[in-house]
């Protein structure tokens, strides 16, 4: 029932099969959207989780995600108002 989200490597000494290249490209599109969010949170909010306990780490992540979502909401509201 689970689908692998890990990229497949090119076979050594052979060209990459087309179906594997397409699958890797689809996985890259999903990964890029997610990684940009994490990079934004690390750079903007200094997100570095170094806590004792899972509950505190989860609370820190939840607050960072809430702040990110509010930033995105403000951005989209401003875009809608001006354009």
Structural class: mainly alpha
Cα distance spanning the termini: 43 Å
Main sheet attributes: strand count, strand direction, barrel closure: none
Which band does the percent of strand residues land in?
A: under 5%
Helix tally equals 2
β-strand number:
0
Helix content: 55-70%
Describe the structure using short key phrases.
83 residues; mainly alpha; 2 helices
Short description:
The chain is mainly alpha-helical.
Topology:
Blueprint: H1 18-45, H2 54-82
Description:
This protein starts with 17 loop residues before the first helix and ends with a helix. The chain is flat. The chain is 69% helix and 0% strand. It is mostly helical. It has one domain. The mean pLDDT is 90. The chain has two helices and no strands.
């Amino acid at each position: 029932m689970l689908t692998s989200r890990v990229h497949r490597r090119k076979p050594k000494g052979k060209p990459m099969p087309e179906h594997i290249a397409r699958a890797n490209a689809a996985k890259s599109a999903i990964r890029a959207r997610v990684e940009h969010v994490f990079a934004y949170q690390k750079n903007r909010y200094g997100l570095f989780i170094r806590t004792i306990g899972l509950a505190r780490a989860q609370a820190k992540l939840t607050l960072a995600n809430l702040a990110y979502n509010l930033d995105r909401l403000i951005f989209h509201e401003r875009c809608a108002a001006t354009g």
